[in-house]
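Give me a protein, keeping tokens residue-aligned:
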Amino acid sequence: MSVAWYLNRLRRMTPQEVSWRLRDEVTKRRWRGLKGATGRGTPIGTPAFAFPPLDPATLDLDPSAARDVIAAAEKILAGRIRLFERDMAPPRAARDWFTDPDSGRVAPSDAFTFDIDAREPGIVGNLTFTPSRLIHVTLLAAAYSLSGNAAFAELAAEQLRSWWEANPFLTGIHWAAGIECGLRLTAFAWARRLLATWPGVTALFEESSLARDQIYNHQFYLAGLRSYGSSANNHLIAEYLGLYVGGSAFPWFTDSAAWREVGRRGLEQEAQRQVFPDGFGRELASEYHGFTMELLMVAALEGIIAGQPFSADFIGTIARMADAWAASLDVGGRSPRQGDTDDAYTLLLDPPGRVRRAVRLLGEAAALVGAAPWWPASPRDFGAAIFKEIRRRYPSPTPALSRPPRRPNVFPDAGLAFMRDLDKRTDELWCRCDYGPHGYLAIAGHAHADALAIEVRHAGVDILVDPGTYCYLTDPVARRYFRSTIAHNTLEIGGQDSATYGGSFLWLDAPNSQALALDGIDDGPVARWQARHDGYAKKPGEPIHQRGVTLDRVARRIEIADSILGQGKFDVRLAFHLGPAVEAHADGDGVTLAWQGIDGRRYTGRLVLPQALGWQVHRGTADPMLGWYSSAFHEKEPSTSLIGGGSVAAGEILAARLQIDPA
């Protein structure tokens, strides 16, 4: 990283955070002598694992879900892991754990972990794609528990031993982040539980000094190093989860009880800190909302198993998150696309896949806190069946929870309004309007400069689309574009973002947004939303962007009106990004659109554009980078972007209209 980045990063830290980070540097220097250490930790008697085996016959499981788990595991046996919406080969040799499948770059595997610049792709490649979190091992173990096929258990054991042997403590890149340790401890615990009937399981875990060393060292790491201050986002929850799960599932050491309690207290605290009262995660990144909810649900499940249920406030937070998640899904069961996502999982018990995962999370939440009557139907998948079985096996009272009697469409803390059809229909018209905070903590690491952006879907298809994330560190130009104001369906003023960009996970300031009107969101034929933000207010003329959106449910029409409050004239660009499945053809004062809904029907429509601006069409261009859509992490494809540029006077209205034709 450049000197400028370090200075900017320092500017966003409090003096207390600087003190914490200096203390961490001292800890890392002290740990240098522990590189590769084994035989650490004071054991409590003979290691044992107290979890009765699961009986597939007792699970409330759809037979097709069981077949899906087994089929996914058979693909792993055949040499293909499905992770991050792509296929890759499972590691077979030590070197494979450190190899970026995209570039072929091999990250350092023998150096002291903290001597490696983990943020430099030229050194470590794109390690997001290595299966080092070992979530595929729990999928193999799940298939074994359902089928009894020893081949699944043997490959799961082989993968665990391979990782343990290739990654001695504090050696190589995979010890660089606490979140990785927390997620691996969760994988260790659930692999052990799901392999309970396999004859080799005690040799793999309880009788293995290699396993004991890794389990101890993962917890030792998390007890000594955690995310602080402006970095204390979902990573910190995962770190506390690792301490709690490790200390609960493997109480084999004199430190276990203390670590378990640290993890529990931290989870209780962060659940309240990182979730708005209205139920949305404060990071305001949709997929991270799902990930954080999953982290908390796995913690709650662990508490039930340990006979140590979490507080009513903690369980209530999960219920609010689940209600917000259920309320945000479109007719196809897809979540919004706000902010960053990297397709992270906490506990992989069913085949991965972003769309299916959205409703799977609801299935698990329903087993844990109960489904509100207005929720969409959730599948009887293996994960949901496990949650139900744990609740049956370890009965404990569920605290009284206050749940919304009908689907909420406005989330005032998160600044989200969902304007859409109120009746259930396959050709649902769905619009997300953003008027919320920029992001979480001082750096808002997973936020985009998307103030007042909208996202529109019809019949489950992206019409006006959020671009997604694409990458984090491997392509700085693309990273900046996908987070930029012009990449979203909103207004850019003066050729700059609505927040000041400081780096891949760093914003140097944040716009303040506020709602001015919210009418008809929950009833009636017409819904209206109006809001403004001050992200450009320090620029010449003190411009304030104001936007109004009107949804006519009967006429199947969305009207968008943008204006600027301030003094003088302003150079602007207004962007409308079409989904990759939408066909577009220029037609007079707008574009004619066509697409096929998830119901299989063909639909058409028309987007009328403000004629005060000069419009250009961009599709997959590199200079400037415009017209791109990312459906999954490190995947991008061309899509059509309509960019209107020009000079507008304060108070001048830029009016656009999206009309959906009758089917």
The mean pLDDT is 95.
